[in-house]
Amino acid sequence: KAGVTQTPRYLIKTRGQQVTLSCSPISGHRSVSWYQQTPGQGLQFLFEYFSETQRNKGNFPGRFSGRQFSNSRSEMNVSTLELGDSALYLCASSEGLAGATISYEQYFGPGTRLTVT
Amino acid sequence: KQEVTQIPAALSVPEGENLVLNCSFTDSAIYNLQWFRQDPGKGLTSLLLIQSSQREQTSGRLNASLDKSSGRSTLYIAASQPGDSATYLCAVRPKGYQFYFGTGTSLTVIP
Questions:
Q1: pLDDT along chain B (111 residues), means of 10
Q2: Which is nearest to A107 in space by CA: A90, A94, A89?
Q3: I need a surface site. Which of A1, A35, A82, B54 has the fewest CB within 10 A?
């Protein structure tokens, strides 16, 4: 099976612009999560989607948004970019959502390196 | 809010040594705990997943244990190799869907 793919791999934007990142999960996986990784804050959860619905959201401003399509592919959008948004954005997929009796392994993509100047 | 701590933050060992990485978490009501490795500038590679009902998991030279009551997990690496050099992260999934990650342990194995 192909792994999680993310496009683009590298991106340079200027302050005030907006950006859209894309994630294609492993075939058959229905849950997609997004994370932001920075040297100062480590890995922070952005949001999780399952069956085209946002199931959980981290503590990020409304400039960060996402969506999931019927084929489970997901996009995240950041509007009005700030210098502090420079980070590695990671996408992870899993077969489903964790529940009381079952939980699923997460598989990560290579990330999109966003630089805001 | 779940807090995840990893100690030590950095570790340097000679090749061939056995080593233990530690992960502690504050809320024991978790679905699972997952260990990852991350190479510089790259994504995360899953190493081991321990369900909340399990005590340990093994894969090759790796063994991970979970003690929910004390909020601790350890990752044991046997006979370390230079290729094991990476940052190791643990993540816990409490009952609420979101994963919480530790800050990682940067491991260097010296040939």
A1: 91 97 92 92 90 92 95 97 97 80 95 95
A2: A94
A3: A1
Q: Do A92 and B51 touch (CB under 8 A)?
A: no
Question: Tokens 């995240």 — which residue?
Answer: A76
Over range A36-48, report the average pLDDT: 91
Distance (Å, whole) CA B64 – CA B21: 9
Tracing tokens 């959502």 back to the chain, one arrives at A97
Read off the amino acid at residue B95.
K
Taking CB atoms and an 8 Å cutoff, what residues of chain B touch A106? 34, 46, 91, 99
Among B42, B26, B48, CA closest to B87: B42
CA distance B47 to chain A (A): 10
Quickly count: other Cβ atoms within 10 Å of residue B9's Cβ. Answer: 11
List the single residue in A42, A56, A111 with the smallest CB-CB distance to B98.
Answer: A56
Distance CA A60, CA A56 (A): 12
User: CB–CB of B31/B99 below 8 Å?
Assistant: no
B8 vs A108: CA distance, rounded Å: 24
Tell me the C-alpha distance between B36 and B46, whole Å: 5
Question: In this predicted model, what pLDDT tens digit does every residue of A61-112 receive, in sequence order?
Answer: 999 999 999 999 999 999 999 999 999 999 999 988 766 566 788 899 999 9
Q: What is residue A100's three-state secondary structure? A: coil
List chain A residues with CB under 8 Å of B87. none
